[in-house]
Amino acid sequence: MENEKKYPLKKILMICSKGNLEDVYAALVMANGAVMEGIETKLFFTFFGLDAITKKTMNKLHTATVGNPAMRMPGGLPFPTLLGVLPGVEAGVSKMMKKGMEKLDMPPVDEFLELIEAGGGEIFACKLAADMFNLKKEDFHETVKAIITVGDLYAMCDGLGTQIVFT
Amino acid sequence: MTTKTIANLSVEVTDEGYLKDVSAWNKEIAIAIAKEEGIELTDKHFEVIEFIRNKVAAGEGLTIRGIGKSGVVDAKTFYQLFPGAPLKKATKIAGVSKPVSCI
Predict the structure, then answer these.
(1) Of B83, B85, B103, the CB nearest to A37
(2) Counting CB atoms within 10 angstroms of each CB, which of A87, A135, B19, B101 has the fewest?
(3) What pLDDT is recorded for position B101?
(4) How far apart are CA A147 and CA A165, in angstroms?
């Protein structure tokens, strides 16, 4: 396999379609990681993912305590679904998650977007989803560059070494 | 691991070009490594390098966020000073080991 030529990743388009704390952070970490490596990065938010760039909701994201089989109690025991429905439990669990992330130097959502932008990454909102949820440019965080269509997104995929990741 | 001559000094480096021994570093080595990376070092670069070396000497982890909040540079300037992959380039020039941070 000596002659196998390598084609390094040059551009990445991350699409975040979910508004759970963990799904949003997965997209943010992946996008920021690409920026850190000098890879051209575009981050695109659609459907419930729009919560991550909407000023009112972006720093109040939750992780689901119901219907999440990977959920564990602090000691590692399974987390009873019935406990997850109690008022305040989801908020408390989400708060614990955020505390744990802060310890690892993972910034809050708005600061994370600013970090990606500082490194040259670009952030976009999906037009169809924005229309659906009745959101305007002014509802979004200032790091959001534009509200674009699917066609606009595909037009950004020009050039060799481009990949799309959908989460 | 290989031995490489940088700035007329023979130093041990990893396969990726990071100095093996933090104490083998000096300003001339920094300038020479930076040149290989296409960077002309200024006083501002050296302020960042000093911050990185102090952080590493204290046994603390390095992140772009941490450097951006250091008061030495903000994240945007850090990206401008070491274009492309700032954390990797800055640590290589600072003569410390390659950071293992994901953020």
Answers:
(1) B85
(2) A87
(3) 82
(4) 19
Distance, CA of A127 to CA of A138 (rounded, Å): 14
Helix (H) or strand (E) holding A122: strand A122-126
Contacts of B74 in chain A (CB under 8 A): 118
CB A118, CB B75: distance < 8 Å: yes
ipTM score: 0.89
Q: Write the CATH number of the domain with boundaries A11-59+109-166.
A: 3.40.1260.10
Contacts of B85 in chain A (CB under 8 A): 36-38
Put simply, the answer to whether B75 touches A37 (Cβ < 8 Å) is: no
Alpha helices in chain A (DSSP H): 21-36, 81-84, 89-103, 109-118, 127-132, 150-155
- The structural domains of chain B, with segments of one domain joined by +, span 2-94
Q: pLDDT of A88-103, one tens digit each?
A: 999 999 999 999 898 8
Strands (E), B1-103: 2-6, 9-13
